[in-house]
Design goal:
By secondary structure, the protein is an alpha/beta fold. The protein is about 35% helix and about 15% strand. The strands form two sheets. A six-stranded mixed sheet has the order 8-7-6-9-5-10. A five-stranded mixed sheet has the order 2-1-3-11-4. The protein is globular and about 65 Å long.
Length: about 325
């Protein structure tokens, strides 16, 4: 039997390199890898279903799954995870604390982005800032014309405006026309050292660490989808994909720990790895449903409460059932 030739669109992460380099194989599959930025993958996946296997925004996928319109079914692989206390950038000349965000104008590249949902969660739960307390200004970071990938039906008290088609939210933050930006990337005015643009939290890593100790939440950003028609036709495929991506991640983590000659172009890798394990445990970047059930439950509850998902999903609703029951020796 010849192998399936499938397109696989993923980010260029260390945890993917063993797959891309051929060290790890997907059983029964001849993959054609495309290493793309998440924005391109998600746009093409949710607009046109361009890929056979691809990284998916957890939020966008949840919107489509709740509506019953997702062309993909996921396996519990999480290519991207990140604490989002570093994702809120403010005008430091007027925003001194989270409380100062009430009544302000906050830019977002898309309202339903996964990073923004996690940020709105802790802003409300820890600081009392509700989505309705802010006027949201949606626009592209750096290139005018970005659109929301999927249509939303938001609560009536949530106000989302579109930025002018000839500007960007980075430019609006730099000029002071908006008060803050929340999103997965830093706006260029922050990277360029604008004197009045900085993090909301003076030490976002420490704030996120304290939040993790209280909540045990390591936010999931992306999952991995398989074209639903392929999974239906080849019921062995979801398990084969999960196994391969799990193995690839394990190899990447083992290399990260080999600090006799560090594999990462960054000082203090050994110290950072040890600190992460002391805080979060040995398997700090876990795949699979059960180790992440509490994280997924919190996300899905928040997603539905914000009016983004038409029904309250369970973690099982997100994933192909074959990938949730694996053999043990």
């Amino acid at each position: 039997m010849s192998k399936l030739q499938l397109s696989v669109a993923i980010g260029d992460y260390d945890r993917m390199r063993p797959l891309v380099d051929g060290l790890v194989q997907i059983d029964g599959v001849d993959p054609q890898f495309m290493l793309l930025d998440p924005e391109e993958i998600f746009f093409r996946a949710f607009r046109h279903a361009d890929f056979d296997i691809c990284e998916l925004s957890l939020s966008s996928y949840s919107v489509k799954t709740a509506a019953g319109t997702s062309p993909y079914v996921a396996v519990p692989v999480f290519p991207s995870r990140a604490f989002r206390h570093t994702s809120i950038y403010v005008r430091t000349d007027r925003i001194k604390s989270p409380a100062d965000l009430k009544g302000r104008r906050v830019g977002v590249p898309e309202y339903q982005l996964t990073a923004n949902i996690w940020a709105r969660m802790f802003l409300e739960e820890d600081y009392g800032i509700r989505p309705a307390d802010i006027t949201w200004v949606r626009g592209a970071y750096e290139h005018p014309g970005r659109v929301e990938k999927i249509s939303l039906n938001l609560p009536a008290d949530v106000v989302v405006e579109n930025a002018s088609s000839d500007t960007t939210i980075s430019a609006l933050l730099a000029s002071g026309e908006i008060d803050a930006v929340i999103g997965p990337r830093a706006p260029s005015c922050f990277d360029q050292g604008h004197p009045n643009v900085g993090y909301l939290f003076a030490d976002p890593q420490q704030t996120a660490t304290e939040w993790y100790k209280r909540t045990r939440l390591f936010p999931i950003m992306h999952t991995l989808g398989i074209r639903r028609s392929l999974a239906d036709k080849h019921p062995w495929l979801p398990v084969a994909v999960f196994k391969a991506f799990e193995r690839s991640k394990a190899i990447a983590v083992a290399k990260l720990g080999d600090t006799s000659a560090t594999k990462v172009t960054m000082p203090f890798v050994e110290e950072q790895l040890r600190a992460a394990r002391l805080l979060m445990g040995e398997d700090f970047w876990s795949y699979g449903l059960e180790p992440n059930r509490h994280v997924l439950n919190r996300f899905l509850q928040r997603h539905h409460a914000e009016g983004l998902s038409a029904r309250l999903l369970t973690p099982e609703d997100l994933f192909h059932p074959a990938a949730l029951e694996l053999h043990k020796v």
